[in-house]
């Protein structure tokens, strides 16, 4: 029963412009309707393209800012590596002297520093 209504609806849509004795003229030609639909589609595409352009611009700016942060971090790591290598050289000198008094002082100072930091952070 529903298919019969669909058939009638389709038939009515097909023959909507036909009257008894002739064809009723539609206000728009098929070409004008197609042009209008194309213009709407073009406008929609232009909007999407402009949105995508802004989005890619935002992504580019974000990537550039992340690259700057990573470069600064790399430079900071390089400077930290230089400081740590100097400290390690000093430790090597202390451990190479085999002085038990220096070793005891070094270990005691590390323990005291660790305990001080531990109590300050609590």
TrEMBL record:
<protein>
    <submittedName>
        <fullName>Bet1-like SNARE 1-1</fullName>
    </submittedName>
</protein>
<keyword id="KW-0653">Protein transport</keyword>
<dbReference type="InterPro" id="IPR000727">
    <property type="entry name" value="T_SNARE_dom"/>
</dbReference>
<keyword id="KW-1133">Transmembrane helix</keyword>
<feature type="transmembrane region" description="Helical">
    <location>
        <begin position="103"/>
        <end position="121"/>
    </location>
</feature>
<comment type="function">
    <text>Required for vesicular transport from the ER to the Golgi complex. Functions as a SNARE associated with ER-derived vesicles.</text>
</comment>
<comment type="similarity">
    <text>Belongs to the BET1 family.</text>
</comment>
<keyword id="KW-0256">Endoplasmic reticulum</keyword>
<keyword id="KW-0333">Golgi apparatus</keyword>
<feature type="domain" description="T-SNARE coiled-coil homology">
    <location>
        <begin position="32"/>
        <end position="94"/>
    </location>
</feature>
<dbReference type="InterPro" id="IPR039899">
    <property type="entry name" value="BET1_SNARE"/>
</dbReference>
<dbReference type="GO" id="GO:0005789">
    <property type="term" value="C:endoplasmic reticulum membrane"/>
</dbReference>
<dbReference type="GO" id="GO:0015031">
    <property type="term" value="P:protein transport"/>
</dbReference>
<keyword id="KW-0812">Transmembrane</keyword>
<keyword id="KW-0175">Coiled coil</keyword>
<keyword id="KW-0813">Transport</keyword>
<dbReference type="GO" id="GO:0000139">
    <property type="term" value="C:Golgi membrane"/>
</dbReference>
<keyword id="KW-0472">Membrane</keyword>
């Amino acid at each position: 029963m529903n298919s019969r209504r669909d058939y009638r609806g389709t038939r009515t849509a097909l023959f909507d412009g036909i009257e008894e004795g002739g064809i009723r003229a539609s206000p728009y030609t098929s070409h004008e309707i197609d042009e209008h639909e194309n213009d709407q589609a073009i406008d929609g595409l232009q909007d999407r393209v402009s949105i995508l352009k802004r989005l890619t611009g935002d992504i580019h700016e974000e990537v550039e800012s992340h690259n700057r942060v990573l470069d600064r971090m790399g430079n900071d790591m390089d400077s930290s590596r230089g400081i740590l290598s100097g400290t390690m050289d000093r430790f090597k000198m202390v451990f190479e002297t085999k002085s038990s008094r220096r070793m005891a002082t070094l270990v005691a100072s590390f323990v005291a520093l660790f305990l001080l930091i531990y109590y300050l952070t609590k």
